[in-house]
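Appendix B. Raw example, untouched.
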Amino acid sequence: MINTERIKSTLSTISGLSAEEIENYDVLVKNSAAVVENALIDTSFEDDDRIIYLAATRAYYNLMLTGVNADDVSEFAAGDVKISLRSQPAESALKLYREAAEAAGSMVYDSGFVFRGV
C-alpha cells in the first residue's frame, strides 16, 4: 500500500498548504494513492519516490480542479499598478502530473488505447 503520509508531505510541498490544511483533503490523497496503486506494474514500486510524487501530483491536480487557491482575476489594473496571472493553477498542476507520469512511466501500466485485433 502506498504511504499516504508521504503523499501528504509531498502534496504540502507542492501546494504550499500546511500539513493541517492538507488533512482536509484526505479523500483526494487516498483516491490518488488508490489510482496510482492500481496502475502499478509491481507492488515493489510502492515506496519509490517517483510513485509517491506521481500520487501527490495527481492529488494536487484534483485539488486545483476543486478551485482551492483559485483566483478568477485574469487582469486587474488600478492606476499604475497592473496585476495579471500567468496561467491557471489547474493547467500548471496538470503539467506537473504529466511530467510525474512520464518519470514513473516504467513502473505503471500505460492507460492508453491499444488495438489488439478483431
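End of appendix B.
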